[in-house]
């Protein structure tokens, strides 16, 4: 006699209470093909999928520095000079001759990043005028390391292990922690436009205590920053704002300059770091003058070309032109 069947169970079939069964291979293939076809139809209707954004400017510049040092070690002086020229152009130092780099640009006092400028000048001296005595290559390598360090993220978020977390978890963890001495450090945490609403709410809650804010190397774009700008401008005690190493352009610089013209915006700010972004290489005089008005006790900002000095310079140029004409 055969075994007695369970009630409600068909021979060779699965229980109706647990009706899962393995899909045959052929059917699985048909289902996958159908899903891929539908996905392709959606892409064709909605356009081509958006490619990932290019790497941030600081990564490109660090790659140039490393490539330049490698060429120098291999004795390829012409290639090294060409790479230095490309790096200078990427940093807004458009000149191509050594004289322009060493003298003409050395007189610029409204540079957004004077440290990078000085290090580039040092590199230009080593590349264009290599010394035969001493370890010239070692000295050049030291400058390259300094420039790499300056242009790359190296703040405390690396040491705190935040890199191992997901971006949203990092942002949530930082915004959940109490402010330490009025400082908010978001360096290295990718910030998208969708994060600005949460960040604005956090800033408004701590508006009376926030003194400094770090947002360097956070993938910040013009779109995201402009959503945040009104909230930042309304912070009554904010003194320093670091926005270096992001994807910001001159369009943002114009908006910030216009905001600074209003005495009610950024009332306590003393400095805004916009270095190492896409194409912000110098700061307009209205930007610098507005900062000076906000911190008169600090004295003259080193980046402002004083009227007296400018007048002396113009007189010297006129004298040189007269002497040239007499000759």
TrEMBL record:
<feature type="region of interest" description="Disordered">
    <location>
        <begin position="308"/>
        <end position="327"/>
    </location>
</feature>
<protein>
    <submittedName>
        <fullName>Leucine rich repeat containing 75A</fullName>
    </submittedName>
</protein>
<dbReference type="InterPro" id="IPR032675">
    <property type="entry name" value="LRR_dom_sf"/>
</dbReference>
<feature type="compositionally biased region" description="Acidic residues">
    <location>
        <begin position="314"/>
        <end position="327"/>
    </location>
</feature>
<feature type="region of interest" description="Disordered">
    <location>
        <begin position="1"/>
        <end position="57"/>
    </location>
</feature>
């Amino acid at each position: 006699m055969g075994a007695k069947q369970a009630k409600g169970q068909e021979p060779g079939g699965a229980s109706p209470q647990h009706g899962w069964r393995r899909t045959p291979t052929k059917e699985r293939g048909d289902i996958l093909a159908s899903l891929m076809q539908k996905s392709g139809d959606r892409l064709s209707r909605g356009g081509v999928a958006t490619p990932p954004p290019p790497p941030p400017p600081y990564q490109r510049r660090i790659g140039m520095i490393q490539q330049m040092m490698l060429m120098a070690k291999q004795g390829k002086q012409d290639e090294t000079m060409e790479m230095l020229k490309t790096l200078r152009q990427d940093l807004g130092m458009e000149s191509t001759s050594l004289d322009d780099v060493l003298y003409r640009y050395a007189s610029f006092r409204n540079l957004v990043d004077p440290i990078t400028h000085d290090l580039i000048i040092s590199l230009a001296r080593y590349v264009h005028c290599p010394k035969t005595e001493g370890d010239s290559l070692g000295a050049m390598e030291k400058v390259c390391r300094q420039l790499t360090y300056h242009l790359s993220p190296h703040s405390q978020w690396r040491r705190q292990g935040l890199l191992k977390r997901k971006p949203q978890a990092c942002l949530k963890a930082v915004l959940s922690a109490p402010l330490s001495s009025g400082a908010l450090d978001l360096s290295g945490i990718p910030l998208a436009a969708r994060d600005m609403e949460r960040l604005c709410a956090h800033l408004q809650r701590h508006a009376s205590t926030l003194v400094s804010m770090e947002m360097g190397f956070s993938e910040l774009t013009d779109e995201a920053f402009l959503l945040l700008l009104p909230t930042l401008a309304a912070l009554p005690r904010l003194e320093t704002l670091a926005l270096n190493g992001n994807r910001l352009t001159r369009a943002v610089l114009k908006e910030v300059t216009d905001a600074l013209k209003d005495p009610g915006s950024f009332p306590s700010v003393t400095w805004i770091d916009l270095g190492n972004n896409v194409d912000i290489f110098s700061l307009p005089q209205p930007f610098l003058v507005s900062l000076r008005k906000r911190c008169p006790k600090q004295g003259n900002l080193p980046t402002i070309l004083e009227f007296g000095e400018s007048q002396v310079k113009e007189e010297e140029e006129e004298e040189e032109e007269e002497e040239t004409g007499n000759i």
